[in-house]
Design brief:
single chain; 125 residues; alpha+beta; OB fold (Dihydrolipoamide Acetyltransferase, E2P); 6-stranded antiparallel β-sheet; 3-stranded antiparallel β-sheet; 18% helix; 35% strand; globular
Amino acid sequence: MNIPENLNYTKDHEWVSIDGNIATVGITDFAQGELGDIVYVEIETEGETLDIEEVFGSVEAVKTVSDLFMPLSGEIIAFNEGLDSSPETVNSDAYNEGWMIKIKMSKLDEVSSLLDAAAYNTLIG
C-alpha cells in the first residue's frame, strides 16, 4: 500500500498536497484499490466555492459510484481534464497524474484537521 509521507489525508480516503494556499486533491491508492477499475470521474463544481465535507464530485467504477468530499473549504480552481478521456489514470497513478482538483483554500486553519501518513495508515489498518 502506497501512502506517501509528504501528503495529508482525510477519513474519506482523499490525499491533499498543500502549496501555499493551494491544495491539490485526489483519492488514495487504498481508495482506488477498493473501488476497482475507475471508468468516469465527474466534477461539475469547478469555479464554485464549497465548505469542508461538501460533495464536490463523484468517481464511478465498474461496480459502484462514490461521492468525493471537500477536504478543505475553498474555491475549486482547476479540474484535471485528462481524467475526462483517461479516468483509469486514477488507478495507475493516484498520487501524481491522477489528481482530481485544485482548491484555493479559504480557511488555512482547516489543514490541521487532516491526517498525516501514519494516522491514515492506522485508519485503514
